[in-house]
Fold this protein.
Amino acid sequence: MLLDHFKDMLHEGQSLGATWIMHSDGLTIETTCEDGPASKGIVFDVTAANPGATATIVIGKPLGSIQRFHMVGSRCREPLPADWAGVTQVSLVNSAPMGCMVDDADRNVLSFAYSFAQDEITMRYGVDEEHVLFVVMLQIQRVPGHSRLLLMDDGLPLDETMRLLVEWVADGSAPLPMADKALEPVFSTWYAYLQNVDAETLGRELDGMSRLGCGSIFIDDGWQQYGSGRGYSGCGDWVPDPVKFPDMSATVRRFQDAGVGVVLWIAPLLLGEKAHVFKTLERYAPIHDDGLGRQFHVLDPRRKVVRDYIGGVCARMAKDYGIAGLKIDFLEQAGAYQGQPLENPEPGDVTDVGEAMRLMLERIKTMLIENCGQVPVVEFRQPYSSPVIAPYSNIVRASDCPADALTNRIRTIDERLAAGNRVVHGDMLLWDVNAGAETCAAQILASFFAVPQISVPPSAMSNGQYESCRFLLSLWRKHRNVLLNGRLQPVSSILGYPLVHAFDGNGTQVSGVYAPDMIIDVDADTRTLIILNASTENNVTIRLHGDGGTVKLTGHAYDCTGAITMQFEEDTDTFRENGDATITTIPVPTYGILELALER
């Protein structure tokens, strides 16, 4: 349907096997001498006769074995939408013009990436039912004079394909250095307190969160003056509420002295009518949003005065309060100015929203580096997932999915595939404090291949929940290197990654089991095996690979609070006589842990 609707306005272009490209008037698309990443694909030069005009590129592929379309930063995960249903507005702060069509074994059937990832592009995609095709259409609002298009159909696994696409789009841009605190578990105030947060309450929880192993506290919305009522009418000044936080710098020092860094939430583009700075900046925030009672104006980042003001605010917060960094939110609001005329431009203003956002984020980055006294923590959340925005943060967090462990797991693994040099954090973890310890464990294990963010007050947890949280975070810290820096191997993206592996290259394997009837393949060089049993079964099944020799398995199973439930010791052949790998089933409690040493 999509293709038939636009076909008369398009011209046939280049092809890659059965894959073809069509394009609108004014574009020329030609094969270059440049190979795709690691020579796995073909790069096409895209030249526009009229830079700044609208343009369209269409990629089509016979449906064949395609089972799912994997996108960057997507919070909607319909595997194969119809082409009349799949649409997203791609921009610097929303997804990226790239994607991967995979088969049922997560092998790349066709992937693509477009180099112009800064400006807004409408990306339409899905199954063309009339022609049994998968079609992707890029409707570019302001095409550059020269850009590039990458196509790959190499059959590589999804994780390898995404790594190559991300590296190609990033094009060597320097990342923000990693902050030490970005690699430690977080206590987030958001689900715990919403906007009802204050220094006294947090101080009472400091010892509990420190003993859990939280290396930082992210003080979310509500710390700022007029930050109450779930609205944003007071945003803009970014000074502490004098009642809730009478001395923010003293609060920060108290936490730092306990080894817990403080990160403050900020929504730099929001301007509320209660803010003292409102009258000064109102003329630079003509768009108003009062939906859902939020009540704010949106600052126009195309204005130099806006970018300078926001940069100054970030510098002041870092210098005056001594914070470890910022959690930066609501960047997508800049899209309200896409396509809007810029009235009475002033020196330093820019007309393009994408370029303006890049300049604003560069300004924030510079101000934080100069004033934090250390590498700053900078958190973005999905869908701020583009490789082009990556140099301005060192954390990307799964977008909000309160108490939804399944969605949190899928979003963190999806984000791991596109994060590049950034570390991925799970969404803040929420559970019912009246439930059992297993409820707490289910949430933590869902974000185990990312950095967990706890958002239940330690004092509100039951003893069992606290012990579960303490034990699992201790285990996470022990194996943090393999979990965050090892080779990630998720299984079956179409089923939501029911099995996830991480390998450190030195014989350690961590495997998370999230569904019944999963078999964990154990590499021949594995010496230490950790299995997270986040399924509903009371056992795990491993399949040992090797050269036919005997493997001695020794270790322990633990319940979710860290209590030993079984000591295990067994000699096992790696291959049976018929050549099949040996399968061993070991009792492990639901939401429990198995730690094994393998001696070959």
About this structure: The two ends are 58 Å apart (CA to CA). The first helix runs from residue 2 to 6. The chain has a mean pLDDT of 94.
